[in-house]
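Example S7 (structure tokens).
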């Protein structure tokens, strides 16, 4: 996948931008707070329909303005072509509104839901916060799984949305039941719990099954990368850590078991929205006991495995967005990363051109200054 051009209007600190990108390595260089990450954020927006930094779209609209626009023109480098023919270009447009919901269009045809953008332009973002994938709580690792699977599997996206709807409805019902128990007049119907639990268990099991397949694939790709970076001394393994069960009957049983305590909390305590990925290096839980270096290598191998997996599953290579990662890595990890990104279109931000970037052939350097970009 190659992004040919990006256009921005009133996005973050960009009033107006038109930027043509190289199919190879694009380096965005500039001091802090000039708009480097903002540009990667805009690309990511078109890929997943959301920002990787905020869940409030309005934060991305330039201060003092009411709407922001992003447009990407791209093509699929693997399209079967007649000799000499140019690949067909596609476009994605996204419109953020301060007083309203966002909308998007693919090739100028409006999409019905923002989630329809998934799979259109595939990207993988590397950032210093990737360390959080190992260090932080389970929600970071679930998000990693969900975002990756959604980019390659529309059915999973559908199940995930349905699951989230039922979960919300069930939690709402729990709250209503608590109110009714306190004597607040309510029309709440207790028998609905069984209906929700049934649907809940159905979607939950489907999600778990697909997440397991994902982890199996990650478990074959990441160890190869990890041992290359760590010099074959370390073996990384992943497990799906389930808080309940992956069969319907058991799940329904557990939901019923925890019903009274769920009522007290007003939320559902069992299900895949509480699951986690177990990450072990040489048998030791790296989330708790890993050294800083092991955590960094583990995060890097998981992300690079994600790139490989996406390429294998879709037959197209994702665009890599590297936000200030080089300075975080030591010489050998930098070299490994540079080698691994060679085949992909890459957009990489930095404050100064480091040696590892200087060594990259055909890298085009752009200067970023207060929301303008020059060559
Ligand atoms: N909604 C907004 N409107 C205008 N400027 C913004 C908005 N959001 C962020 N900025 C500005 O963008 C800059 C940060 O950009 P960023 O891309 O994160 O920097 P960096 O180049 O360090 O990656 C800051 O100067 C900030 O004030
Ligand atoms: Mg930045």
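Recovered sequence:
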């Amino acid at each position: 996948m190659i992004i040919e051009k990006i256009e921005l209007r009133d996005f973050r600190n960009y009033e107006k931008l038109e930027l043509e990108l190289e199919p190879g390595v694009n380096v965005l260089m500039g001091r802090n707070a000039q708009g480097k990450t903002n540009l990667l954020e805009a690309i990511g927006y078109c890929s997943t329909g959301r920002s990787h930094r905020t869940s409030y779209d309005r934060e991305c609209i330039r201060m003092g303005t009411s709407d922001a626009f992003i447009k990407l023109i791209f093509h699929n480098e693997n399209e079967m072509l007649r000799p000499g023919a140019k690949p067909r270009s596609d476009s994605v447009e996204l419109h953020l509104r301060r007083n309203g919901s966002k909308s998007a269009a693919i090739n100028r045809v409006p999409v019905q839901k923002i989630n329809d953008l998934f799979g259109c332009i595939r990207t993988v973002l590397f950032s210093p916060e990737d360390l959080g994938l190992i260090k932080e709580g389970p929600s970071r690792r679930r998000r990693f799984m969900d975002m990756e699977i959604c980019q390659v599997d529309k059915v999973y996206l559908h199940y995930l949305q349905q699951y989230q709807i039922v979960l919300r409805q069930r939690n709402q019902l729990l709250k209503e039941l608590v109110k009714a128990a306190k004597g607040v007049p309510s029309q709440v119907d207790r028998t609905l719990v069984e209906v929700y639990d049934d649907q809940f268990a159905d979607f939950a099991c489907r999600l778990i099954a697909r997440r397991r397949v994902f982890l199996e694939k990650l478990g074959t790709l990441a160890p190869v990368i990890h041992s290359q970076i760590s010099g074959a001394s370390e073996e990384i393994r992943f497990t799906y850590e389930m808080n309940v069960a992956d069969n319907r009957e058991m799940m329904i049983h557990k939901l019923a078991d925890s019903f009274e305590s769920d009522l007290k909390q007003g939320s559902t305590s069992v299900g895949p929205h509480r699951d986690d990925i177990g990450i072990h290096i040489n048998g030791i839980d790296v989330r708790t006991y890993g050294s800083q270096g092991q955590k960094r290598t583990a995060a890097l191998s998981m992300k690079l495995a994600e790139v490989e997996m996406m390429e294998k599953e879709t037959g197209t290579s994702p665009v890599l967005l590297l936000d200030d990662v080089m300075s975080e890595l030591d010489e050998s990890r930098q070299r490994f990363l540079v080698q691994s990104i060679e085949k992909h279109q890459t957009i990489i931000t930095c404050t100064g051109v480091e040696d590892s970037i200087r060594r990259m052939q055909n890298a085009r350097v752009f200067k970023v200054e207060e929301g303008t970009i020059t060559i």
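Notes on this example. The longest strand covers residues 2-11.
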